[in-house]
Amino acid sequence: MENRKQIDIEKIKVIQAPLAGVSDKVFRYLIRKYYSHCLMTTEMISSELLCNNPNPRIIEFDELEYPLAFQLVGHKVDKMTKAAKILSPYASIIDINCGCPVKKVALSGDGCALMKNPSLAFDIIQSIKQETNLPVSVKMRLGWNQQEENFIEFASTVEQAGACFVTLHARSRAQMYEGRAQWDKIALLVKELSIPVYANGDIKTLEDAIECLRITKAKGVSIGRGILGDFTLLNRIEKYLTTGEVFPEPNLTIKIDMLKRHLKLEIERLGETNGIKFMRKFYSYYISSIKNASKYRSILVTIEKESEIIKVLDEILSIYYRND
Ligand SMILES: Cc1cc2nc3c(=O)[nH]c(=O)nc-3n(C[C@H](O)[C@H](O)[C@H](O)COP(=O)(O)O)c2cc1C
Fold first, then answer.
1. What b/e sequence results for 42-62 when a residue is b if at least 16 CB atoms lie within 10 Å of its CB, and e otherwise?
2. Which residue CA neighbors atom 22 of ligand 1 most closely?
């Protein structure tokens, strides 16, 4: 395992951004199966939960996912360090969540609240590095709100603490997911830091990635919601950045095939009832290109048997190609 989990950050152009409740082991496995060499990141893992209950389900992953960052959320130096030590046999990198805006997280001092306390983030990073010897990265936002946009000061502090790179989601906590990500601010940070900066926020296509890198001059891109419904996106961006080749977006046949694989693997992981419930959030992304997508989505989310979902998906395909 030691060799497989090694990471050469120099080579990383694309990062799969963590999406809690979405980018589970199956999601990450499929990104690899669709040929991406990106750095994978787990969903955020609570350091408190991991320390109190080191249940293997919290840290489920497949060896195929390497290189793999485990993302920790929390604000207590001792708990964050202990959690990182629990993860150290498996992690290529420990990523510290300094961006989560959700009330339950940020109002208890975790996630984006760490940006209000750069010296605490400094201590957490130093302690994890000392105790685990692993590289530590940081995922952050512009700041708490527009008045407190301290991303340059905060990122400089984590750089001094020894972080190996930062990923900047170019919105403040107050913005949540509203408005456009401000890529011009990522460009400001790139000029200030010596460590790599990865650009995050609103990169949903190859063209977005090219434009974002042109504006920011970042080391690479970190992509979350853009992967939904298209596991080939990361590989297509990597191909373009390394060879200049442009590969076509997947057609509906490929997307439906992806959806079927995703469904099958979630059913294997969670059982038919829970696997099907879990998959309901994904349908609209896979079928967004068809006429009447919302009608089909409403049908799909009521179905409780895998075989019936497959029947509807095949019907969608045959109607689509008949009308084409
Ligand atoms: C459903 C959802 C779950 C998320 N979970 C996490 C998380 O666990 N850790 C984290 O650092 N960011 C999390 N994020 C933020 C994303 O990683 C990313 O920064 C944000 O969505 C902007 O990038 P995008 O436009 O490429 O999606 C989450 C976002 C969404 C929409």
1. bbbbbbbebbeeeeeebbebe
2. 201
